[in-house]
Amino acid sequence: MAPYHVLRCCQRSLAWIPVIFINLVVGWSYYAYVVELCIFTIPNNAEKISYLLVFHLFFIMFIWSYWKTICSRPASPSKEFGLPKAEKEQYEKEERPDVQQEILKKVAIGLPVYTRTGTGAIRYCDHCQVIKPDRCHHCSTCEMCVLKMDHHCPWVNNCVGFSNYKFFVLFLAYSMLYCVFIAATVLQYFIKFWTNQLPDTHAKFHVLFLFFVAAMFFISILSLFSYHLWLVGKNRTTIEAFRAPVFRNGSDKNGFSLGFSRNVAEVFGDEKKYWLLPIYSSHGDGHSFVTRLVNLDPEQLAVGLQINGKSAVDGPTSPKHSLGNSIHHSEDHLDSILEQTGAETVTVTIESES
């Protein structure tokens, strides 16, 4: 076991190399722009001050969103999705897959779980020993199941998922703005240095190289940012874009799509004042999600149209609270969602026991 732990420790240390590289490039770009360009190269004070103000705005937002993406721990399934002790022992002793599935189905009753494996089985993680919530996947790098997992990003050394997807999109947006602003404002001095209109000083190398680096990063980030904007508009993760989620009635790539405006709100929240800030404002708790499907399962206690509870800005709610909201939701809000998604109206009567 000792060599394995040493190997894992080395892997975790090496995983920080891309993050260190990005921070070194950003640190150099800050020095090159502020000191070599603005202080030593630009003669006009008004131009110099205006450039510095806008530059620091983009720089602060870029660093803020970047480190929020890095430091936000991936959200994992709560204990409600784990097998009770008796069922867990029974599951581990049982060797027949069909009997194991019956055990999982029994435990899954009452949980907001509507997606299945490609063969229609309950999704279960043998490593984490939990029933996987919808849109949850196991990350072999993080060695944990991640709620609404999008992908594992080496540039942030973290899994991008429910807890930090908004921060990741903002990181792409502000890094792109940071690069395009640098490239646009450096261009005229790049041309002057290139055509020898300015004397050869120590600033020449920094200004020339700064333009090339900013333009190169802008082009590469633009394609990635455009792709994730498309994913947000479709309410899909990168995993779901490559492999459509499978529901009880079959696979459906648009199973979680609720229309463009509501799809955006799922990630950024309802209050637009928080959209551009790397502050948590996403909908739900990561365990259950609104779907446009209304097919009911007689073995399932929850309704087919899931409505996850809206959380406050300071964090998500618990899965039990979300499930309660999915059942006791106002008829007006249900009607509005059904109109937007084009789903058929289904009447569900829930009788309480006296």
TrEMBL record:
Enzyme Commission number, as recorded: 2.3.1.225
All residue ranges annotated as the Palmitoyltransferase DHHC domain in the record: 122-242
Membrane topology field: Multi-pass membrane protein
Keywords recorded for this protein, A-Z: Acyltransferase, Membrane, Transferase, Transmembrane, Transmembrane helix
Pfam families hit by this protein: DHHC
InterPro entries on file: Palmitoyltrfase_DHHC, PFA4/ZDH16/20/ERF2-like
PROSITE patterns, per database record: DHHC (PS50216)
Leading EC class: transferase
Any one GO molecular function term: protein-cysteine S-palmitoyltransferase activity
Annotated transmembrane regions: 14-33, 49-67, 167-191, 203-227
Localization (cell): Membrane
Catalytic activity: L-cysteinyl-[protein] + hexadecanoyl-CoA = S-hexadecanoyl-L-cysteinyl-[protein] + CoA
CC terms in the record's Gene Ontology section: membrane
Similarity field: Belongs to the DHHC palmitoyltransferase family.
Domain notes: The DHHC domain is required for palmitoyltransferase activity.
Protein's name according to its UniProt entry: Palmitoyltransferase
